[in-house]
Prior knowledge:
258 residues; mainly alpha; 9 helices
Amino acid sequence: MSESPTIATQPKSTTGAALVAEAFGTLLLVLATIGTWLFAAGFGAGTDASNKGVGFVGVSLAVGLTVVVGVYAFGPISGGHFNPAVTLGLAAAGRFPWRRVVPYLIAQVVGGLVGTTLLVLVSLSGPNDFLTRAEGAGFASNGWDSLSPAGFGIGGAVIVETLFTLLFLVVILGVTHPVRGTRFAGLAIGLTLTVIHLATIPIDNTSVNPARSLATAVYGGATALSQLWVFIVFPIVGALVAGFAYRALFDGTRSLAA
Length: 258
């Protein structure tokens, strides 16, 4: 099978180019996802124009489509992670060198923060104190209780972030496997992320990406910042479990003795 530009591909570019690609990819992901959330999801709510809003389905598609585009655009340069949990999960699975983890995490966080800052600048020109209202509503931050669209508590957020990040990494590791992988890995990864968001947005606004969570929480107010730790810790826990477990269960050497 020919090598495809997917998340698990070991990048052949320089370290500097890989870090810039990770920052740009995360920037693209945050701009598209959070931009859709802020400007388009509830567009026209409470008016006759309410049917123009894209809702949760639109946000979910924005996430998945952006990941597909980002993986194929930046995958050959950096591997196309755009997510600290993905980077750590790949390292745990032996698909990515641990020495490059911290620089990747920094690039992803910077890219995400630049993304939400640009959205803040756009929001400044919005009507009727748009930015103030967006920040008051949490600026699309992840959270529970008052920040959960459906009012779920912290337990739901913890389970969702751990479980769905774990499943996301298992899919990534499967479709990008150097022997069993597929050239359509980017599409499979994007569709998986779309389904994850469709299932879990009402619970905690769906993170499975600490860089995305940090990028929104800094503009989401005190409650969003106080709850941020869950959306950093538990996606990472899920990713590490997935990486170590996948390596142990599916990447071992088969015995021919039997």
